[in-house]
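User: Please fill in residues for this 160-position structure.
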């Protein structure tokens, strides 16, 4: 550097944010304007999208070929990130190839998050083939955490 003020400036760019900030920027699409924006995540705040609902669907489970399992309940283990309202849905197919489903909704969590690992029993009952489980929540319904889901049920006896 010659003839300057003696201040060294960074010679590389990481998107306009100084590396000392250690902030990762993610390109996102604004759902209202459709334009690309750069956003960051605040790790001090639990995830709770105020605009869009969210859901997760597990793969289809064929318990035993050509059998009709009956699901009696679920045990949902989660981290208490605050209050959340969710809907659990089981979907299956009957022997007549009709799609059937059962949904149950519940609210869990504490007003002030404890970050403790908790387990609740979800009462849901469905008999059918090719069972599939999904969980969903509305926009702004709270921060959702799923650590583990245990499905409890039985399979009919098969007599050839």
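Assistant: Residues filled in for all 160 positions:
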């Amino acid at each position: 550097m010659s003839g300057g003020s003696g201040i060294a400036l960074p010679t590389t760019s990481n998107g306009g944010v100084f590396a000392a900030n250690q902030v990762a920027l993610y390109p996102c699409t604004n759902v209202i304007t459709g334009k690309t924006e750069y956003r960051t995540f605040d790790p001090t705040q639990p995830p709770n999208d105020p605009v869009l609902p969210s859901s997760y669907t597990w793969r289809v489970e064929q318990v035993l070929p050509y059998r009709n399992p009956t699901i009696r309940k679920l045990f949902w283990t989660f981290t208490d990130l605050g209050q959340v309202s969710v809907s659990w849905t089981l979907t299956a197919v009957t022997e007549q190839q009709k799609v059937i489903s059962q949904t149950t909704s519940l609210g869990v969590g504490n007003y002030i998050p404890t970050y403790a690992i908790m387990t609740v029993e979800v009462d849901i009952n469905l008999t059918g083939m090719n069972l599939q489980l999904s969980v969903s929540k509305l926009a702004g319904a709270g921060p959702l955490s799923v650590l583990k889901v245990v499905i409890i049920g039985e399979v009919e006896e098969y007599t050839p």
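For context: Strands lie at 26-29, 36-39, 54-57, 69-79, 84-93, 99-108, 117-127, 129-137, 148-155.
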